[in-house]
Design brief:
heterotrimer; A mainly alpha; B mainly alpha; C mainly alpha; A: mainly alpha; 2 domains; 75% helix; disordered N terminus; disordered C terminus; C: mainly alpha
Chain lengths: 107, 590, 196
C-alpha cells in the first residue's frame, strides 16, 4: 500500500480538530469539578440524580461527538447506534417492569 | 466534515483477488486446525456442533428411560455412571437434573447455534455474497476457539464434585446460586460461548455490509444472507445482558454477593448467611432478555436455509421476497421486547402482562408472513423431490405446529395452566427439533456438494428423512397431551407420583420409544455423511442448477473462493424467467 | 489474501471494515454496561436502605481518577492526530502518556480497593459494595484490555507505520474509539456510584 497520506490540506484540518480537542478537554475538567461540587450540596434524591445524569450526559456526548468523531460519522454508524439506544432503553425498562405495577412485593 | 483518514481505492479493485499467486503453502496445523479460512472454520463449527447435538441427544435418551420406566435400572448403560449418580443402575434425581440442564444448554448453545450460524453462516455467507473470506479472518478463528473452550468447559463440568449444572438451562436464582460447583463451570463456559458469539456477530455484520460483490444490493441478497444478518444483530445486542448476569451470578457464588439472593432466604431449615437485598427476578429478566432473542437466533438461519432450498427446488422465485425481508427485520426488532412472556407467572401486574402479551401476539405476525410466503412459493411450482427438499418441506408444517402452539403460551391467562408443563416442551421442541434441526439437515445435504465436490446418497437420505419425520412427531405430539393434562416439566419421574397424571403416563413410554428409534434413524445419516466424503458420487460445481453466487465457485472452493471477483447482475432467484435459454439465470452471469 | 476495505474505505458506506467492527463491538459493550446499570437501578430502588456513595467511597480520589482518565482520552486522540500529521515521534509521546495515565488510574484503583478491604468492606458486605466492586471491576478489566492494545501499538505494533502508515493510523483510531468508550463509561459510573 502506498504511503500517500497527509497533504497540507489535511494538516490544516487536523489543526482545527486539535483546537476542538483542547477546548473539549477543558470543558470536561470544568464539568467534572462542577458535578462534584454540586454533590456536596446534598440535594434531594430526584434532583441530585437528574443533575448528575444531565452533567454526565453532556460530558459523555462531548467525548462521543468530538473525541470519537461521532459528529461527523457516517449514516451506517448512526443507524447501529440508534438501534443500540432503543434496546438500551428496553434494558433500562427492566427496573420499571419489575417495580411498577405491583410486580415485586417488598417486605 | 469527511473522515480525514479516508483513502479511496480506484476502480479495478478486482486486481487484489489475483494475489493468490503469492500465497504460501501452509503446514497441516495452519491449514486444517488453526485456519483463518472461513470454509475450514465453518466445517470445524459444523462438525463440532453436530457432535454436540448427538451428545446432547444422548443425554436425553438416558433421561427418557427414567421417564418411561421411573425407578427402573437402565440396562447395559446403567452401571457406567457410578454409584454416586446411578446406584444399581437407577437414576438419582440430582443426576436427572444434571442431564436435563446440560441437555438444554448443549443443544442450544453448543449444538444448534454453532451449526446454524457458525457452520452454515461461516461457510455459505462469504460465498453467497461473492467475497474472498470474512472481513476479519483471524477474529473468525478466535471465535471458533472460544466456542471450543466453552464446549470443553461445559463437558469438563460433568466431572467436578457434585456434577454439572443442574438448575435447568435457565439457571434460575436462588437455586443456581446455591448449587454445587458445576454451576460455576457453566457460568464460565457461557462467558466463553458469549464471547465467541459476539466476535462472530461483529464479523458477520461487517462482512455482509462491506464485502458484498459489486451489484449485490441489499434487496438482491439471497434470503439466507438476510437471515444471517439479522441473526448477527440479535447475537450482538442480546447476549451482553446475559454476560452481565453471568458475572453477577459468579460474584454471588464466588464473592458472596447477594445480587440474586433475597433477604431472609431459608434453605432446608437453614438461613442463608448472605447480606440479602437481592432479587431473583433480576436474573430472570436478564436471562430472558437474551434467551428470547436467542430463540429467533435458533429459527432465523433455519428459515434462511429452507428458503434457499425451496426456491431452488420449485424452480421459481420466492413468493413475496420483500415481505419476507421486512418480516425478518421486524421480527428481529420485536424479539427484544417480548421477553417477559416467559415470566407471566412471577406475579406481574396486569399492565405489564398486557404489554408483553400484546407484543408477543404482534411478533407472531412476521413469523406467519414468512411461513405463508414459503408455502405460497410452492404454488404452481415444478417441485423437485430430493433429500434437501424433503427436509425443507417437512420443516414447514412442523414449524407451523410449533408456532401455532406458542400462541396460547403468549397469552397471559391461557399461559396459567400451561406454564412449565410438557405443553411448553412440546411447543419449543416442535420449532427447534423437527423445525430447525430439519433445516440443518436440509442444509447439510444441500451444501455438501459445494464443500466436497460429491453428493450424499439419496436413498439413505430419504430413509433418514422418513424415519426422523415420523419419530419426531411420535416423541413430541404426545407431550401436548401430557401438558394439557397438567404434567409439569422437569419432573424426575415424569409425573408418576401424581394421581391426576396417571391416565396420561403411558404417553411417556411412547415418547421414549420415539426417541430411541429416532437415534437409530440417524445412523444412515452419519454413515452417509462420512462415506460420501470419500465415496460419494462426484458432481460439478452446480449440481442443483442453482442461481446464487456460491455455486459459481469450484467445489470445493479454493482459498480466496473466486478466481475473479464475481458481480451480481440480477436478483437471487431468477428461475423460469420467460424467454430465457434455460430454467435458471445465475446471479453472477452477465 | 488482501481483504478489501481494511485500509481504504468502501465508497458507498464511506467506512473501513475496522471502523464498523469496532463500533459494532462498542454497541455490544453499551448493552453489557447498560445491563449492569439497569441492575443497579433495580436493586437500589428495591432496597429499604441504600448508603450515599460519598459515605463509603473516597470522592476526592475518584475525582482525581476521573480527571486522569479524561486526560488520557485527550492524549489518545492527540496520538491519532499526530499520526494524521505524519509525526511518529509525537505519536509515541502521546500514546506513551495515554498508557501511563491508564496505569495511574489502575494504581489509584488499587489503593481504593485495598483500603476498602482493609476496612473489612467486601463485595459480600452489602449490595452497594457488591455493585460497586462489580461495576468498577469490570470497568477496570476494560482499562487493562485497552492499555494492552495501546501498549502493543506503541511498541511492536508501530512497525506497521513504515510499511502501511494508513493502516496503522486506522488501527490507532479504532483502538482510540475503544479507549474513549472506557472513559465514557467511567463518566457515568463516577457520579452514579460516588456522588449519589
Amino acid at each position: 500500500m502506498t504511503t500517500d497520506h497527509v497533504t497540507s490540506d489535511h494538516a490544516v484540518d487536523i489543526d482545527r480538530h486539535v483546537r476542538v480537542y483542547i477546548t473539549v478537554f477543558v470543558v470536561l475538567m470544568v464539568l467534572t469539578i462542577i458535578t462534584v461540587a454540586i454533590s456536596y450540596l446534598h440535594l434531594p434524591v430526584a434532583a441530585a440524580v437528574s443533575v448528575a445524569l444531565l452533567v454526565a450526559t453532556v460530558k459523555g456526548s462531548l467525548v462521543a461527538c468530538y473525541f470519537m468523531h461521532l459528529i461527523s460519522e457516517k449514516k451506517l454508524i448512526y443507524a447501529v447506534l440508534l438501534l443500540t439506544i432503543v434496546f438500551f432503553a428496553a434494558l433500562l425498562a427492566l427496573p420499571v417492569v419489575t417495580h411498577g405495577n405491583g410486580f415485586w412485593i417488598h417486605e | 466534515m469527511s473522515d480525514p483518514a479516508a483513502v479511496v481505492v480506484p476502480k479495478g479493485s478486482k486486481a487484489h483477488v489475483a494475489h493468490e499467486v503469492h500465497h504460501e503453502e501452509l503446514g497441516f496445523w495452519r491449514k486444517y486446525v488453526f485456519s483463518t479460512d472461513h470454509k475450514v472454520i465453518g466445517i470445524q463449527y459444523g462438525i463440532t456442533g453436530l457432535l454436540f447435538l448427538f451428545f446432547g441427544f444422548s443425554l436425553m435418551m438416558l433421561m427418557r428411560w427414567q421417564l418411561a420406566y421411573p425407578g427402573a435400572a437402565i440396562p447395559l448403560l446403567g452401571t457406567l455412571f457410578g454409584e454416586a449418580r446411578m446406584p444399581g443402575g437407577t437414576m438419582l434425581p440430582d443426576f436427572y437434573n444434571e442431564l436435563g440442564a446440560m441437555h438444554g444448554t448443549i443443544m442450544v448453545f453448543l449444538g444448534v447455534v454453532p451449526v446454524a450460524v457458525g457452520g452454515f453462516g461461516n461457510f455459505v455467507l462469504p460465498l453467497q455474497i461473492g467475497a474472498q473470506d470474512m472481513a476479519f479472518p483471524r477474529l473468525n478463528m478466535a471465535s471458533y476457539w472460544f466456542f471450543f473452550l466453552g464446549g470443553v468447559t461445559m463437558l469438563a463440568s460433568f466431572f467436578v464434585p457434585g456434577g454439572a449444572a443442574q438448575s435447568g438451562w435457565t439457571s434460575y436464582a436462588p437455586l443456581s446460586v446455591l448449587a454445587t460447583g458445576g454451576q460455576t463451570w457453566w457460568l464460565i463456559g457461557m462467558i466463553f460461548l458469549i464471547t465467541s458469539s459476539l466476535l462472530g456477530a461483529v464479523n458477520f455484520i461487517t462482512t455482509t455490509i462491506q464485502l458484498r460483490a459489486k451489484g449485490l444490493t441489499f434487496m438482491r441478497f439471497p434470503f439466507f444472507v438476510w437471515a444471517q444478518f439479522v441473526t448477527a444483530f440479535l447475537l450482538l445486542l442480546a447476549f451482553p445482558p446475559l454476560e452481565a448476569a453471568g458475572i453477577m451470578q459468579l460474584m454471588d457464588r464466588l464473592a458472596g454477593t447477594s445480587f440474586f439472593l433475597p433477604t431472609g432466604l431459608v434453605v432446608s431449615g437453614q438461613v442463608v448467611a448472605n447480606a440479602g437485598g437481592g432479587n431473583p427476578l433480576l436474573w430472570q429478566h436478564l436471562f430472558w432478555f437474551l434467551a428470547h432473542p436467542e430463540v429467533y437466533v435458533l429459527i432465523l438461519p433455519a428459515m434462511g436455509i429452507v428458503a434457499e432450498i425451496i426456491a431452488n427446488n420449485t424452480r421459481k422465485p420466492l413468493w413475496g421476497y420483500r415481505s419476507m425481508v421486512w418480516s425478518l427485520v421486524f421480527l428481529g426488532f420485536m424479539s427484544f421486547i417480548v421477553w417477559a412472556h416467559h415470566m407471566f407467572m412471577t406475579g406481574m401486574g396486569t399492565a405489564m402482562a398486557t404489554f408483553f402479551q400484546t407484543t408477543t401476539m404482534i411478533i407472531s405476525i412476521p413469523s406467519v408472513v414468512i411461513l405463508t410466503a414459503l408455502l405460497l412459493s410452492l404454488w404452481g411450482a415444478s417441485i423437485r423431490i430430493n433429500t434437501p427438499m424433503l427436509f425443507a418441506l417437512g420443516f414447514l408444517p412442523m414449524f407451523g405446529i410449533g408456532g401455532l402452539t406458542g400462541l396460547p403460551l403468549g397469552l397471559n391467562v391461557a399461559d396459567i395452566p400451561l406454564h412449565d408443563t410438557y405443553y411448553v416442551i412440546a411447543h419449543f421442541h416442535y420449532v427447534v427439533a423437527p423445525g430447525t434441526i430439519f433445516a440443518l439437515f436440509a442444509g447439510v445435504y444441500y451444501w455438501f456438494p459445494k464443500a466436497t465436490g460429491r453428493r450424499m446418497n439419496e436413498t439413505l437420505g430419504k430413509i433418514h428423512f422418513a424415519g426422523s419425520f415420523i419419530c419426531m412427531n411420535v416423541i413430541f405430539m404426545p407431550m401436548f397431551m401430557l401438558g394439557l393434562a397438567g404434567v409439569s416439566r422437569r419432573l424426575f419421574d415424569g409425573g408418576a407420583s401424581y394421581d391426576f397424571a396417571q391416565p396420561v403416563l403411558h404417553l411417556n413410554v411412547v415418547s421414549s420409544w420415539g426417541a430411541w428409534i429416532l437415534a437409530i434413524f440417524q445412523l444412515p445419516f452419519i454413515f452417509n455423511f462420512f462415506w460420501s466424503i470419500w465415496k460419494g458420487e462426484k458432481v460439478g460445481d452446480n449440481p442443483w442448477q442453482a442461481t446464487t453466487i456460491e455455486w459459481a465457485a469450484p467445489s470445493p472452493p479454493p482459498h480466496g473462493n473466486f478466481a475473479v471477483a464475481p458481480e451480481a447482475h440480477r436478483g437471487p432467484y431468477e428461475y423460469s424467467v420467460p424467454g430465457a435459454p434455460r430454467d435458471f439465470l445465475p446471479q453472477h452471469e452477465a | 489474501m488482501d481483504i478489501p476495505y481494511t485500509v481504504e474505505i468502501r465508497r458507498d458506506t464511506g467506512l473501513t471494515n475496522g471502523k464498523i467492527g469496532i463500533w459494532l463491538f462498542l454497541a455490544s459493550e453499551v448493552m453489557l454496561f447498560g445491563a449492569l446499570f439497569a441492575s443497579y437501578i433495580l436493586i437500589r430502588t428495591g432496597a429499604t436502605t441504600w448508603p450515599r456513595g460519598d459515605s463509603i467511597l473516597n470522592v476526592p480520589l475518584a475525582t482525581f481518577n476521573t480527571l486522569v482518565l479524561i486526560s488520557s482520552s485527550v492524549t489518545m486522540v492527540m496520538a491519532w492526530a499526530s499520526l494524521m500529521r505524519g509525526r511518529l515521534g509525537t505519536f509515541r509521546m502521546y500514546m506513551g502518556a495515554t498508557v501511563l495515565l491508564g496505569f495511574v488510574f489502575l494504581v489509584v484503583k488499587y489503593f481504593e480497593y485495598s483500603h476498602k478491604f482493609h476496612d473489612e468492606l467486601f463485595p459480600s458486605t452489602n449490595n452497594f459494595l457488591a455493585i460497586y466492586f462489580t461495576l468498577t471491576g469490570l470497568h477496570m478489566l476494560h482499562v487493562i484490555g485497552g492499555m494492552a492494545v495501546n501498549a502493543y501499538l506503541l511498541g511492536p505494533g508501530s512497525k506497521l507505520w513504515k510499511t502501511n502508515p494508513v493502516w496503522f493510523t486506522n488501527r490507532v483510531e479504532n483502538s482510540g474509539l475503544f479507549w474513549h468508550f472506557v472513559d465514557l463509561v467511567w463518566i457515568f459510573l463516577f457520579p452514579t456510584l460516588y456522588l449519589l
